[in-house]
Design brief:
149 residues, alpha+beta, 2 domains, two-stranded antiparallel sheet, 5 helices, 30% helix, 26% strand
């Protein structure tokens, strides 16, 4: 790594990372596990970003996980790492739970407010859609057909 290119990492790991100048990420180039750097030491396997955080900022608080602020799982730059709760880490991401939580309207265009939503089998559901569905001609015809059987 060039002098002045970012925070210094332990000598043992200096051959396993490279400086990416565009985003100031320091990418781990050693072994990987689930799109994250993986290192082995006296305590066994550790994720490289957790090792980098611990060496630069101290112990990871109990119940916290390390979030990559740069969204790059191979980055070991301590300036790009933050200890947060697992919920915060998930909500900052691009996974389906985070996408659903950020939705403001259902697929039919109804606003998803606390008054217009309810918990349907562990998922947020639109009350207005359910009301419209239960009063639709197709639903009523289906119910009449079920009663005849």
């Amino acid at each position: 790594m060039r002098a002045g290119a970012g925070p210094a990492l332990p000598d043992k790991h200096s051959a396993r990372h490279e400086q990416v100048t565009m985003s100031d990420c320091i990418n781990w180039t050693g072994a990987t596990f689930t799109s994250h750097g993986n290192t082995y030491g006296r305590t066994g396997n550790r994720l490289a970003h957790r090792q980098a955080y611990t060496r630069a900022k101290g112990q990871i608080p109990a119940g916290m996980v390390i979030d990559h602020l740069c969204r790059n799982g191979l980055c070991v730059n301590p300036e790009h790492l933050e200890a947060v709760s697992n919920t915060v880490n998930i909500m900052r991401g691009e996974g389906q739970p985070a996408k659903n939580a950020r939705k403001t309207h259902c697929w039919r265009g109804h606003e998803l407010t606390p008054d217009n939503t309810w918990n349907k089998r562990g998922r947020r559901a639109c009350r207005q859609c359910d009301i419209e569905r239960y009063h639709s001609a197709e639903y009523l015809a289906h119910q009449r057909e079920r009663r005849r059987r």
